[in-house]
C-alpha cells in the first residue's frame, strides 16, 4: 500500500482484521506487506502496526504482488503506479485527479503489461459504479450519465433548499460539521466533480476524456432566491455532473421523414441544474452521492450511497483489491477495458437542455411581445412563463414592476446564450437573473 | 440461446444488431449460432431470422461456446444447464425459479467444471445487483439487504398510496395496464420476490439458500385503511424482500458489559412493511425496483431501475454474456463465487423489527393500562401510541369507542406474536387490525 491517510488506514484495518474471511473469498489469505508513508511517526486515524510503515515506496512496490495507491496528487503517484503496472503488477487506486488527467497513459501501461488498473474508489466513494458500468452495462449502450458526485456541494445545496439559508451560511455550516474543507475551492467550484465526470464519461462511452474536456461551473453563484424560485416551480437545484451523447438530427432529405439522429460526440459538464422533485436524483439528501444512468436497453438506473468517508471509500478499494487478488491467485489474464477515443468530447454549444431564467421588467404593454420575439428569433421555444407583479422600484415610482419566470423547451446551448445576450440589451428588461439549466422530461 | 420469449427475443436482437460494437468490447465478434424454441413458427415480439430457430436444444448446446438460458421453469432448463456446465461451457441464465430452488447444484456443477454460471437478469431485472454484490462488495461485510423486487406489487401499493384505491381496484388497474398478469398469484403472494430474496441472500451472505428458507407474506391482506394509516404516520407500505444478519446479544456476564453481538444466522423474508417516507426506498414508484444494501464499511447503498421488461432484462443478460465471452476469448479461468452455507437460515422468531398495529377499544378507564401491561409482560416496548375517539358502535350505544395506533420499538418477532395473541383475548380489545412490520431508524 502507498498512503495511510483517512482511506488508506481503513483499508489497512480491514485487511488486518478480516484477512481470514477475505482469504476464503480470494482463494488465498492476503498479506499486507507494508505501507509507504512520508513520515512513519505521523498521527493516524487508525492504529497501524509500526513495523508495516516504511518510507521506501520503491522497495515496497518491488516486493508486492498487488499495489494499492491511496496517496492522491499527481506525483509521485503517477510514476509509482506506472512502475508497478510496467512490472505487471495489478494496481488499485482511488486517485481521481491522477486518473482524470493521465488515465489514458495509465490504462495503456496496464494493457501493454497485461495487468489491471482499477479505481472504483475514485468515483462516488463507496458506490459501485465503475465496475457496473464496465461489466454490467457492457452489452448495452449508454446515452447519458447524470451524477451528484460531490457530497460537499450536495450538502450545501440541500441546506439551502431545506432551511432557506444563503450560500455563505450553508458553506459555513458545512465547514463546521466537517462536510467542507477549510479551503473548499475544489468542491464548490466543481473541480472535484469534474474529475469524476471525466473518469465516468470515459467508461460510459468507451472513450478517453480528461478533466480539460469537462465544462465546469460551481455553485458559488447559486443564490437563496434561485433555490426558492426552483422550489416554487417544483424543482430542486443540484450540482450535476453530466456525460451525455450528443446527436445531430440528420436534416430532412425532402421526403418529410428526417433521418435517425447520429452521435457526433459526448458532452461532459458540471453545472448547477434544476431537476424535478419527483426525479430519483432529487431525493438524494445531505452528503450522499448518486449516479443516474440512461441506457438504451436497461432504461433508467440509479446507484446511490456515501460519496466519501474513510470506511465507505475503503469498501470500494477492497472490492477492487479482492478482484485483483482473485485474478492473481487464479492466474488468468486481466481483461482491460478498451478506451480508444471513439467519441470526441464536444463543447457545450450543441448540447440541448431546458433553461430557467427570471427577468425583471417594467409592467407595461409590449414587454412580453419584445421578449418573446427575441426567444423566437433565436429558435428557443418557451415552455412556461409566469408573471408576478412586484412593488414599484423606488427609482421608477408609478411605473409598475413585474417578474417573469421563464422555462424554455430544450434548446441548443449556443442559441440560448445568444438569446440571453440579446435579452440583456432590451430596454424592456431591467435585470436578468437565476439562469439555470433544467433537466426534465421536457 | 435457449428460449425466444420476451427477453430472449430482445437478447437476440441486440446480438444481431450490435455484434460489431460488442466485438470491440469482447475481443472477438460474437456469433449467435441458434435459438432453441418449442415451436419455430410461434409468433415472436421481435422478428428473428427463421434459420436461427431450432427445436433441437441438445444439439445447439453441443455446438455452442456459451449458452444463454431464457426459457424459465425448472425442467428441461435444469437438465440443459447442467449438461452445458458439465461440458465446461459458461452459462448465462435469467431463471429465478430454477436458481432459487437448485442454485447449489448448479453452482457446484460450474465450480467442478471450472466454468461460470451468471444470472444478473434473475434478480431485479435490469438493475446491476448480482455482480456488484459479488464483486464490488467482496471486501465488505453485508448486514442487511432490503429490496423492492417485484414491480407488480410495487405498482399496486403505489396506486393504493397515491389514489386511495383498495387492493382489488389497484390490481384490476395493474392488469389493465399490463403490469399484472391474468393470474397474478406469483406476484401478489410474494413468491416471485421470495425467489429473488433466496438468490440475493445467498450472494450477500456467501451462503446457499433456497426459496423454502424464505418466510413469505403477500399483499392481498393490505387494506386501503392500512395504507392511509401508514401515510398519516409518515410511512409508506412496500412489499420488501429482506435478507438480514441475525445476531444474538451475548448475555451479560456479570461485569455489567454485555459481549459483542455474534451472528447466529440469516433471516430471509418477504413481507409488507412500513418504511418512513424519507427512506430512499420510499421514493421507488410504479413498477420500478430497488435494492437497498447496508454494509459494514460501505454504509447504505441503493441500486434502482426497471425490474422487468424485455429490453431492460436483456441488458442484464447482455452484461453477463459479454463478461462470459470476454473470459472465453481471453482464456482465463472462471472465478466462481463460493457458497459454503456459512450462515444458516433462521426462522423469523428471532428477527427484531418494529411493528405497527391498530386496536379498537371501548373508551373507558383501565383500557390503556390493560393493553400496556400485556406489551410489557412480553418484553415488547411501545414507541408511540396515538388515541383517536370514534363515534359509538351501534351495538354499544353510549359506551364510547377509541382507536389506538401503536408502534413498537424493535422486538423479537416471537414476542410480538405472543403479545398479539394475548391482546386479542382481552375484553378491553374489540378488534385488532393493520398489524404491519416497520423498518426505521428506531
What do you see in this structure?
The structure is a homodimer of 442-residue chains. With 442 residues, the first copy, chain A, is of the alpha/beta class. Chain A folds into three domains: 133 residues, NAD(P)-binding Rossmann-like Domain (Rossmann fold, 3-Layer(aba) Sandwich), CATH 3.40.50; 176 residues, Dihydrodipicolinate Reductase, domain 2 (2-Layer Sandwich), CATH 3.30.360.10; 88 residues, 2-Layer Sandwich (Alpha-Beta Plaits). Helices cover 36% and strands 24% of the residues of chain A. Chain A has 14 helices and 17 strands. In chain A, strands 6, 7, 8, 9, 10, 11, 12, 13, 14, 15, 16 and 17 form a twelve-stranded mixed β-sheet that branches. In chain A, α4 links the parallel β3 and β4. In chain A, α1 crosses α12 and α13 runs antiparallel to α14. The longest helix of chain A has 21 residues. The model of chain A has no long low-confidence stretch (mean pLDDT 90). At the A-B interface, α2, α6, β11 and α12 of A face α2, α6, β11 and α12 of B.
Task: Considering the chains and any ligands shown, give keywords for the structure.
homodimer; about 450 residues; alpha/beta; Rossmann fold; Dihydrodipicolinate Reductase, domain 2; Alpha-Beta Plaits; 3 domains; twelve-stranded mixed beta sheet; three-stranded parallel beta sheet; elongated
Amino acid at each position: 500500500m502507498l498512503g495511510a491517510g483517512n482511506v488508506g488506514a481503513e483499508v489497512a484495518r480491514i485487511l488486518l482484521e478480516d484477512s481470514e474471511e477475505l482469504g476464503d473469498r480470494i482463494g488465498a489469505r492476503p498479506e499486507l506487506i507494508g505501507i509507504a508513508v512520508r513520515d512513519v511517526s505521523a498521527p493516524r486515524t487508525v492504529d497501524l502496526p509500526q513495523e508495516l510503515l516504511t518510507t521506501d515506496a520503491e522497495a515496497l512496490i518491488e516486493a508486492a504482488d498487488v499495489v494499492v495507491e491511496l496517496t492522491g496528487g499527481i506525483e509521485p503517484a503517477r510514476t509509482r503506479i506506472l512502475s508497478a503496472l510496467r512490472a505487471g503488477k495489478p494496481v488499485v487506486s482511488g486517485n481521481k485527479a491522477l486518473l482524470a488527467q493521465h488515465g489514458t497513459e495509465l490504462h495503456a501501461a496496464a494493457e501493454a503489461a497485461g495487468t489491471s488498473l482499477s479505481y472504483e474508489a475514485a468515483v462516488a466513494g463507496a458506490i459501485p459504479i465503475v465496475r457496473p458500468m464496465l461489466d454490467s452495462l457492457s452489452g448495452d449502450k449508454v446515452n447519458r450519465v447524470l451524477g451528484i458526485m460531490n457530497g460537499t456541494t450536495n450538502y450545501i445545496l440541500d441546506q439551502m433548499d431545506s432551511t432557506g439559508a444563503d450560500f455563505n451560511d450553508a458553506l459555513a455550516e458545512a465547514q463546521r460539521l466537517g462536510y467542507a474543507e477549510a479551503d473548499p475551492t475544489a468542491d464548490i467550484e466543481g473541480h472535484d466533480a469534474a474529475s469524476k465526470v471525466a473518469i465516468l464519461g470515459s467508461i460510459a462511452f468507451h472513450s478517453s476524456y480528461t478533466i480539460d474536456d469537462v465544462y465546469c461551473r460551481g455553485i458559488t453563484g447559486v443564490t437563496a432566491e434561485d433555490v426558492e424560485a426552483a422550489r416554487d416551480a417544483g424543482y430542486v437545484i443540484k450540482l450535476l455532473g453530466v456525460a451525455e451523447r450528443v446527436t445531430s438530427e440528420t436534416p430532412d432529405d425532402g421526403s418529410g421523414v428526417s433521418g435517425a439522429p447520429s452521435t457526433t460526440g459526448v458532452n461532459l459538464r458540471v453545472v448547477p441544474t434544476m431537476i424535478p422533485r419527483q426525479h430519483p436524483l432529487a431525493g438524494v439528501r445531505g452528503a450522499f452521492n448518486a449516479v443516474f444512468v440512461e441506457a438504451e436497453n436497461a432504461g433508467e438506473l440509479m446507484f446511490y450511497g456515501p460519496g466519501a468517508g474513510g470506511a465507505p471509500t475503503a469498501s470500494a478499494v477492497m472490492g477492487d483489491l479482492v478482484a485483483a487478488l482473485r485474478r492473481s491467485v487464479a492466474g488468468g489474464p486481466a481483461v482491460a477495458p478498451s478506451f480508444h477515443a471513439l467519441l470526441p468530447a464536444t463543447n457545450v454549444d450543441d448540447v440541448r437542455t431546458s433553461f430557467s431564467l427570471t427577468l425583471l421588467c417594467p409592467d407595461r404593454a409590449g414587454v412580453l411581445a419584445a421578449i418573446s420575439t427575441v426567444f423566437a428569433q433565436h429558435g428557443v421555444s418557451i415552455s412556461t412563463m409566469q408573471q408576478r407583479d412586484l412593488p414599484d422600484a423606488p427609482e421608477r415610482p408609478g411605473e409598475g414592476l413585474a417578474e417573469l419566470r421563464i422555462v424554455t423547451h430544450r434548446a441548443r446551448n449556443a442559441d440560448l446564450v445568444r438569446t440571453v445576450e440579446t435579452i440583456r440589451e432590451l430596454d424592456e428588461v431591467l435585470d436578468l437573473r437565476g439562469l439555470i439549466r433544467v433537466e426534465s422530461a421536457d
